[in-house]
Amino acid sequence: MTERLIRLMRLINLIQSKPGILARELADRCDTTERTIYRDLEALSAMNIPISNLGHGKGYAFISNFSMYPLDWTEEEAVSFSMLPSVLEPIKTLIPEGFESAYEKVMGTHRKEKARRVDIVQHVADIIQLGTPAYRKDSSSYLFDIIQAALSQKTIRAVYYSQYRDGESAREIDPYFLIPRDYRFYVIGYCHKANDIRTFRISRFRSVEVLEQTFDKGEFNLKQYMKNTWSIERGRELIRFKVRFHSDAARYVKEEEMFLKPTMTMQRDGSLLFEVTVNHDREFLNWLSQYGPDAEILEPKSYREVMREKLVRWKTLYDV
């Protein structure tokens, strides 16, 4: 079994390094018969390794982008493989020459790839410059730790400041996704304290510890979760806004990068009819306010009154 395992790994490497390699060449390189090679190829196919016969005289190659490297191991797989020498210790004298060096090369590749990924994540975290809330005295960021946890699907233990409650709390969070919104980064994941999916602003983390405990996203769908959300704040109702933008603002609105896909219809006078359905009004109204009198809410009519009252309050401030 050990000899065959080595040969199967060698077959994968040979086909990866030389697509189109023939069965007879595989047999020569593995010092065995073509009949054995055919049996080995059938075994690899049964293990869902996508090796395909390219046709008579054209040899074998991997389908799609399959590759053995980089070694995309989970931590459990890496630990299991690292224990292989101790498992084989009782039959060490029966193991063919070359197994030890082959094993060391595989483990060396894994360690190198793991270190490379850590370096890449660190570089990405260093490039992304996050702002710091005005009330914070320190500028510490836990972006690197959170990215690492999200990539390796590990739970984090964190102390998080909640603006709504104006207090800190200890939580364990499964970080599913990191998303940028309005110059900020947010984590969307499962909160063990709330037993539900929650959204966390990275600048509000006070401490982060990556645990060995792993998680599975299950059937969580980010697109469905964020459906009809204008930016990050989610609500429970659906509000259909119809807004008319003046021609002076129309071209700028069309260039806005949005998370939702509105319906935009140019009018004969150069104005823009903008229609979108959102599940919360606050962030949308804040965005709309930047356009001042160049944006007029047509529907719902109740929001025309909301905007009118806001304008009256603004005017009162400057009437003094």
TrEMBL record:
<dbReference type="InterPro" id="IPR051534">
    <property type="entry name" value="CBASS_pafABC_assoc_protein"/>
</dbReference>
<protein>
    <submittedName>
        <fullName>Transcriptional regulator</fullName>
    </submittedName>
</protein>
<feature type="domain" description="Helix-turn-helix type 11">
    <location>
        <begin position="10"/>
        <end position="53"/>
    </location>
</feature>
<dbReference type="InterPro" id="IPR036388">
    <property type="entry name" value="WH-like_DNA-bd_sf"/>
</dbReference>
<dbReference type="Pfam" id="PF13280">
    <property type="entry name" value="WYL"/>
</dbReference>
<dbReference type="InterPro" id="IPR013196">
    <property type="entry name" value="HTH_11"/>
</dbReference>
<feature type="domain" description="WYL">
    <location>
        <begin position="143"/>
        <end position="210"/>
    </location>
</feature>
<dbReference type="Pfam" id="PF08279">
    <property type="entry name" value="HTH_11"/>
</dbReference>
<dbReference type="InterPro" id="IPR026881">
    <property type="entry name" value="WYL_dom"/>
</dbReference>
<feature type="domain" description="WCX">
    <location>
        <begin position="238"/>
        <end position="312"/>
    </location>
</feature>
<dbReference type="InterPro" id="IPR036390">
    <property type="entry name" value="WH_DNA-bd_sf"/>
</dbReference>
<dbReference type="Pfam" id="PF25583">
    <property type="entry name" value="WCX"/>
</dbReference>
<dbReference type="InterPro" id="IPR057727">
    <property type="entry name" value="WCX_dom"/>
</dbReference>
<dbReference type="InterPro" id="IPR028349">
    <property type="entry name" value="PafC-like"/>
</dbReference>
